[in-house]
Amino acid sequence: MKIILLGAPGAGKGTLAESLCRQLDIPTISTGNIIREALKSGTELGKMAKSYMDAGQLVPDEVVIGIIREKLADPVCEKGFILDGFPRTIAQAEALDKMGVEIDCVLSLEVDDDTIITRLSGRRVCIDCGAPYHVIYKKPKVENVCDNCSGTLVQRKDDHPDTIMERLKVYREQTEPLKDFYEKRGLLRTVAGQEKIEDTLRQALEVLVK
Ligand code: AP5
Fold this sequence. Notes:
Elements: E1 2-7, H1 13-24, E2 28-30, H2 31-41, H3 44-54, H4 61-72, E3 81-84, H5 90-98, E4 105-110, H6 113-121, E5 123-126, E6 132-134, E7 153-154, H7 161-175, H8 177-183, E8 188-192, H9 197-209
Parallel strand pairs: 1-3, 1-4, 2-3, 4-8
Antiparallel strand pairs: 5-6, 5-7
Helix pairs in contact: 1-9, 2-3, 4-5
Bound molecules: BIS(adenosine)-5'-pentaphosphate.
The site of BIS(adenosine)-5'-pentaphosphate (AP5) has 36 residues, from α1, α2, α3, β6 and α9.
């Protein structure tokens, strides 16, 4: 199964992807995590992307398209994958078409702006593996320690209030038009982000088996 997760920043794409990839036994490709990893390792990609990310802007299309092309060529993606955070512009969606990728389903996570602000301001992520947590909704077993790899939990630089507002604006202008793009192809399915993470997962699975 080849799935795209669409949704505003903080809608819960990364959290849902983490559960879905376990349930469906397919890998997740998160462009945000790949770029953050490059930033941490100080690669050319990381250095180039830093100013865009910190300002809540999108990294140029050709850069992320290159990342995705390389990742999809990996044999682990043969039986399917979940794209978290790609495509984010019409140009990126068209590039996916040109790669010959046939998507089965586009899940759009719908969450209102107030909830997004609460989620992002309370989010903590593992500095080592990137797993997302929340100070209220998804607490780790041990405070500030990742359940998966024992890494330290930190707040993302782009989760500060001014940057959150900019990311939402960029989402509305550049990413939301993708809903129409995939609706016209009959691929768009909507999932209302729920108060509880398990409820969002259950709804997403119901939509996927339909
Ligand atoms: P990226 O990392 O993709 O950020 P984003 O899309 O802004 O999404 P987030 O990771 O902030 O949120 P999410 O929807 O995954 O929510 P999460 O599950 O963590 O991209 C970052 C940057 O990289 C971009 O700004 C851009 O610069 C660059 N970039 C990446 N891809 C690019 C592309 N294709 N093109 C160009 N540039 C690109 O959940 C949020 C919080 O809510 C968590 O704390 C979680 O625990 C909690 N939560 C989640 N679900 C629920 C629930 N159901 N109930 C209660 N709490 C919940």
